Amino acid sequence: MSGPNTDYDPVEVTPLRADEVEAQVEAALAAVAGAADLEALKQVRLEHAGDRSPLALANREIGALPPQARKEAGARVGKARGMVNKALGERLAVLEAEHEERMLVEETVDVTLPTDRTLSGARHPITMMSERIADVFVAMGWEVAEGPQVEAEWLNFDALNMGADHPARTMQDTFWLEPAEAALVLRTHTSPVQARTMLTREPPIYVVCPGRVYRTDEIDATHSPVFHQVEGLVIDEGITMAHLKGSLDHFATAMFGEGITTRFRPSYFPFTEPSAEVDLICFVCRGIDADSCRTCRGEGWIEWGGCGVVNPRVLTACGVDPEKYTGFAFGMGIDRTMMFRHGVEDMRDIFEGDIRFAQPFGIEI
Ligand code: DAH
Fold it and tell me: Residue with the nearest Cα to atom 6 of ligand 1?
């Protein structure tokens, strides 16, 4: 049986020699002191205190020593490692504090600096409203159609059953373009887009047409020579007034909220037969306290636009077979819709282009 190896000289185990351990500690402390930032310190920790650092490896050698030599070597290496770890901890605290201070300086915002006060532009509320309206119909599978603002007289009037001497022509006071022989007008309504659509597409047709229109009106709180309408047109087999009513009720609810539907009053438009004026249930009083309501002024209803079943004469003029197809159409003022939806009292506010009017509607660029 062999006894403990009492002849073993611990000094001979190089990594555990006092001078070697001291040299490692010195090297480690110098490296710690020289670590300029947290990243460098991390590297120093790995090299001098990590699992593969000389001191950690020396520590492992202890087990190989004879028991009587272990205590001293253990104390030496333990103390050395303690010093290195302490230095690492202190340096870490210093570097972290420095880092934090630097971040505070670098990320400081000087709120007193002069700024670029140019306002960013706002999309016009009418543009946003037109898109919102179009979205209601696009969600039902309709398409958006557009036409030119300078329109052929024939499309603005004749194709819509308003002949040269039709009395309805005088209902809409028209801007004519020169020379007169060109027979061009600034379109007085969006209805010519109906004619253009029927002339260029095959039924079934489901289109919504928002756009700018012109009439020779004097400017006042409720009139402007330029304003906006939205036109709807459906041409398909078996279309009836019931489809029209359902579509407009959906449109009204989508724009003004649950419970806001429409009623029809008999009317006349040359391009529809029968024709109706569309009223909305007043979305403020809902027809319940109409007497004191400032929005509908006691009516319980708000006039919204015109509509009807497309006149077969219009279908024929636009190349659609009235024996096979029927359709409906409607037209509403977008400015008017915005005025009562948002409580705009003076139409001039819509057209003057003052950004202070547009801003409350939200800056969408
Ligand atoms: N174009 C008409 C106007 O400007 C509005 C209108 C009424 C359009 C009835 C329609 C309709 O499509 O069916 O006053």
Answer: 331
